[in-house]
Write a structure and sequence with these properties.
The chain is an alpha/beta fold and about 775 residues long.
């Protein structure tokens, strides 16, 4: 058995300058051929392999992962297994395989064929596409992409380790198709899918793979519809078959994001797999287990999900603890794939040098792994200088100005229980009914309107100093007026200003709050071709000046209808930033909550009667372990309520959540005490409505009727069906009609057509219910 002393579990795949995004979107637009896209992707893979070798990972020892994806790793394995639902069967090629067109169509939809549902990957902001499985799903090896990439690497002189979602996680994350029998469990198809994995393993070995990484994070989660014992038994069945295959590479099972369940740990340790990678940042060194003497243990001591330089000496000590379990070999690793962090901090030429010294993006984390691997091979003294430098950076960070601000600490320390409580709900409803004068089933949108090329060009020109503040303000006012006029034309009931001034729903606020820094090139994949630049929350947070008031006030001056004030909530600001790891998240959330509380007071004083505080990440950050969830929900709900509790009864507070399994946190959504909650519902065709009904949700709710993450224009009938489902299940006075999410990523043609259909669908349902 041979394995490198250090490895990473995956690497960013979109390119340092988002080259893959541009190539994919150019292909979607018909500007480039599939062959041209394939060539760009091959070039990116070549650049990645060469860069990782340059940073110190071995070219021929399987330390470099082959983790490329055009869109999503779960979709990749679904396509490879032939596990696309029947509505995409026509996309099979003559040889029985699925090509790029099938992959992209399943992700984005086509005509009346809805795309696969999208949701969050465990407790991250990465979105994966949910496989659809039933009793009749026919599994077969239907794509050679994993194999082709291994062969491609071999031809270039590299022996890489293909990274593939494992069978237990693939099925545990899948949903039953609409045609499946009641009570059907996708995990019940495990025995049927394993022969295809065996065939894939043999093909990978033939192509030159010496190791294969099978990602099984389902084995750490307690938030899936399966118990730990059931998942561990599935792992036993799966790895008895896969590890027992006669013709295969060596198998590394990777289970990051939290602690492996004791049941799964025992199963994997006792199996015939060759290595296990575990998370030692969000988990601890597990108990001794039988079977480890024949295995490699990869200790995930470098955080794959945050960007702080961290305690390298402590990481090395943790590897020493892991060695005490008696495994055949211990290797240094990342906790997860590095797809969750940007490429290289060296690309950030405008960040403060002191802040940069505290950071480690993907390339710096590779260097940390190489350092730890050297220490494992040569002893601690061989890396003493690197360990000391990391320790000094930690000490410098702790003492830097702004990391702790006495005035901010005093304010959070003085909070009382009453600061988190709004007025009586019945009195609020009465006051809002009297002041807002809204129809039954009010129509609205979530906040942003399309960010056109003209908006992006104007923003860039202003940033470069090519247009002054006054000219840029006039441009933004004209754009806001255009959006208001469009909504008047569409006959939407509650308007938004369109957010033309905002580059991103978190970064915009990060640029205006103390305690944050923003990057130039810190791109991280969110889903498909979409990427975000998470801000860096490094110090105590406060609001030096109003952030949104003048734009909301201007938009409201253009209409007699209500225009919503739009804010991003404290949990989402934390979730979509790289947050300081030197204090409890609850303290940081309350600091952000107080800053937003001040902003809401100013919006209210400016005459804004409806204020939306978006919390799409509420479900996302829910800990994977049940024992940790109550404390999280307490502080996350509390920070939202701290933000909103001081408003008058007549001020209507909205919130928005998207792309998560909301039934799990429906009680927490209720506890937010928002007057109206809009929730993604279109891809699941309104399934969340049943959760809302069953929970007796007492507040207003807008189940999304238009999936804005697909370029499809949903028909009147399609949107009406979801809205009617809500009308059949919920009190009519509680229902709102809206899209799933903001419209920033859409074009104006599809936006106008889709919104016209939304308004028409709403009017049809109003007529049917006699409103």
């Amino acid at each position: 058995m041979t394995f490198p002393a250090g490895t990473i579990l995956g690497y960013p795949r979109i390119g340092r300058q988002r080259e893959l995004k541009r190539a994919v979107e150019s292909h979607w637009a018909g500007k480039t051929t599939a062959a041209e896209l394939e060539a760009t992707a091959a070039s990116l893979r070549e650049v990645t392999r060469n860069r990782l070798a340059e940073l110190g990972l071995g070219k021929d020892d399987s330390s470099i992962p082959e983790s490329f994806s055009y869109y999503d790793q779960v979709l990749d394995i679904a396509v490879t297994l032939g596990a696309l639902p029947a509505r995409f069967a026509h996309l099979r090629q003559a040889d029985g395989s699925y090509g790029l067109d099938a992959l992209f169509t399943a992700a984005r939809g086509e005509g009346e064929r809805a795309p696969l549902e999208m949701t969050k990957w465990f407790d991250t902001n990465y979105h994966y596409l949910v496989p659809e499985i039933d009793e009749n799903t026919a599994f077969s090896l239907s794509s050679s992409r994993f194999v082709d990439q291994v062969a491609e690497a071999r031809a270039a002189g590299f022996t890489t380790r293909p990274v593939i979602v494992g069978p237990v996680t693939f099925l545990a994350l899948a949903k039953a198709t609409d045609e499946a029998a009641e009570g059907f469990s996708p995990l019940s198809r495990l025995q049927d899918v394993l022969p295809v994995y065996v065939e894939l393993l043999a093909a990978l070995k033939a192509a030159g793979a010496e190791w294969v990484q099978l990602d099984e994070p389902a084995l750490v989660s307690e938030s899936l519809p399966y118990g730990a014992a059931e998942l561990a038994e599935a792992a036993r069945v799966a790895y008895d078959v896969l590890a027992g295959a006669a013709d295969r590479p060596q198998i590394l099972v990777a289970a990051g994001y939290a602690q492996l369940s004791p049941e799964a740990w025992t199963v994997l340790a006792g199996s015939a797999v060759d290595g296990i990678a575990i998370d030692l940042r969000r988990g601890s060194v597990p108990a001794p287990a039988a079977g480890l003497e024949n295995k490699v243990l990869v200790g995930g001591v470098i955080d794959g999900r945050n960007i702080w330089r961290g305690d390298l000496a402590g990481a090395f000590d943790k590897l020493g603890e892991l060695a005490s379990l008696g495994a055949a070999q211990v290797a240094a690793g990342t906790t997860t794939s590095l797809q969750h962090v940007p490429h290289d901090v060296a690309d950030e030429t405008q960040l403060d040098a002191r802040l940069v010294s505290w950071l480690a993006f993907a390339d710096q984390k590779v260097a940390q792994i190489v350092t730890l691997a050297k220490g494992l091979a040569e002893g601690r003294d061989a890396i003493a200088a690197e360990l000391d430098a990391a320790t000094a950076a930690l000490a410098d960070r702790a003492s830097a100005p702004g990391v702790r601000v006495d005035a901010v600490r005093a304010r959070t320390g003085a909070l009382q229980a009453d600061d988190f409580v709004r007025g009586n709900e019945d009195e609020r409803v009465a006051a809002q009914d009297a002041s807002l004068n809204l129809p039954v089933l009010p129509t609205t949108t979530i906040g942003s309107f399309p960010q056109t090329g003209e908006i992006r060009k104007a923003r860039a020109a202003h940033a470069r100093g090519e247009i002054d503040d006054a000219a840029y303000d006039e441009f933004l006012k004209a754009e806001i007026a255009r959006v208001i006029d469009l909504q008047h034309d569409l006959d939407i009931d509650v308007l938004v200003h369109g957010e033309a001034e905002r580059n991103d729903m978190v970064q915009y606020f990060a640029e205006l709050l103390d305690g944050f820094a923003v990057t130039q090139n810190g791109w991280v994949q969110s889903y498909g071709s979409r990427a975000t630049r998470p801000s860096l929350l490094w110090g105590d947070v406060s609001r030096p000046a109003p952030m949104t008031v003048r734009w909301a006030e201007y938009a409201q001056s253009l209409s007699k209808k209500h225009v919503k004030g739009m804010l991003t909530g404290p949990v989402t600001i934390l979730a979509w930033s790289f947050v300081r790891d030197d204090q409890p998240l609850a303290e940081t959330a309350n600091q952000v909550g107080l800053a937003l509380r001040d902003e809401i007071a100013d919006l209210e004083n400016a005459g804004i009667a409806i204020i939306q505080v978006d919390e799409p990440a509420l479900r996302e950050l829910l800990p994977l372990k049940v024992a940790d969830q109550a404390a999280y929900l307490d502080w996350s709900v509390g920070s939202f309520r701290l933000s909103t509790a001081a408003v008058a009864d007549a001020t209507q507070i909205h919130t928005h959540l998207c792309y998560s399994e909301f039934g799990v946190v429906i009680d927490a959504i209720t506890a937010l005490d928002a007057d109206v909650t809009s929730i993604e519902a279109a891809r699941s065709r309104g399934d969340v409505i049943d959760d809302i009904r069953d929970a007796g949700f007492p507040h207003g709710v807008g189940p999304g009727v238009w999936d804005i993450h697909s370029p499809r224009v949903p028909s009147v009938d399609e949107q009406e069906s979801i809205l009617q489902r809500a009308a059949d299940a919920l009190p009519h006075k509680l229902i709102w009609a809206n899209p799933d999410c903001g419209l920033k990523t859409r074009g104006y043609d599809e936006t106008v057509e889709s919104l016209r259909n939304l308004v028409a669908a709403t009017k049809n349902v109003r007529e049917k219910i006699g409103a």
